[in-house]
Structures are given as C-alpha cells and as structure tokens.
Write a structure and sequence with these properties.
With 205 residues, this protein is of the alpha/beta class. It has 8 helices and 8 strands.
Length: 205
Amino acid sequence: MPVFDLFSIGHSNIAIERFLATLQAAEVDTIADVRSVPSSRHAPWFSKRNLAARLAAAGIGYAAMGDTLGGRPGNNSLYRDGIADYEAMAMQPEFRAGLDRLVDAVSRSRVCLMCAEREPLDCHRFLLVARSLAERGLAAGHILHGGTIEPHAATERRLLALDGEGCDLFAAGQLQRLAAAYRRRARAVAFRQKVPAPRRAVENR
C-alpha cells in the first residue's frame, strides 16, 4: 500500500458528513485550504467559517492558505493571455513561502490539501501545488470522488494519457512530455480573467 506524505481532495458539492468521513478514513487531522476564495454558493457548508467549525467539531484543524497557494493570482503579470500561468506562479517568492509553510505542517500533522474541483486533473491543487511538492520529494495521494486514493504518479499517468502521450514516466524525453502535458492542461482549466464587456456608444440626443 502506498505511503503518502499528504493528501488532496476536492469538496465539490458532497454532503459535509461524507466529506468528514472520508477525511477520517484517511486519518487526516489538518485541512490546508488552497482556495483563493474560500466560499461556496452551491455548498455553503464549505464556506470558510462553516467548514472550520465543522472540522473543529470533528477534531480536524483548518489552515487557510489560499493567499499564497491559491490558483487565482492577484498580480496581472502572472496571467498569460488572460489565463493564470502556473509555471510563473510556482517561481514567485510568496508561493515558495507558502510551500515552505505547508511542508512544515506536513512534518507535524497529517495534512490534506483542499480545493473545490472534484477531479484533480481540473484543479491547481494537482497541476500546481502537488506538482511543486513532488519536486521537493513529497508524495501526495489524491482522494477521488468515490473515496479511492490515487498516487500522484498515477494521476500524472492519467494526465499523459489524456494528453495523448505514453505513460512510461522514465522513458527518454518523457519528463519533457510530462511538463508539456502539465502546461497544456493548465491552459485548458486554469482561472481566466474576466474580459470587461464592451462599452456601448452613447448617442447624442
């Protein structure tokens, strides 16, 4: 059975009781919330205050980390053609400091990254945060919607298959193909800046 340094999960709109049971089954004792906006209109029980209270009642800690590890940068220079640039974000001192804080938490507790998207391939928790942690030698397990825990390397193999590449991560040139697959997937699913609606011309009367 794989040994994980930390986990990740997407809350989607599942019932809070099921969410808590899933965390308890994985023996998670700390949630690291990496949402840039820690609220949910469709599932208000996952809004920051409500969630922190329910976690506390279940004996699980809560850490808001979306300010440094979120997927919606406030700096316009971290967007490329209006799309959040994960590779540029990963180089920022603030992001690296957030990773340092997360790694420290992992050394002291059983941490689970949390964001909103159900599928890790659709979320920066996999495409940005867990990828950066893997580069530091940490093994993440992604908790899927059905409760199965998928090793990060297996999620990467799914990424390559989705991208139309082979799945042998140790083949010559495969690391470059994996990096390209990460880049293309991020371009497809990353946060997009809203384009202002064109202003209507005002007729002279």
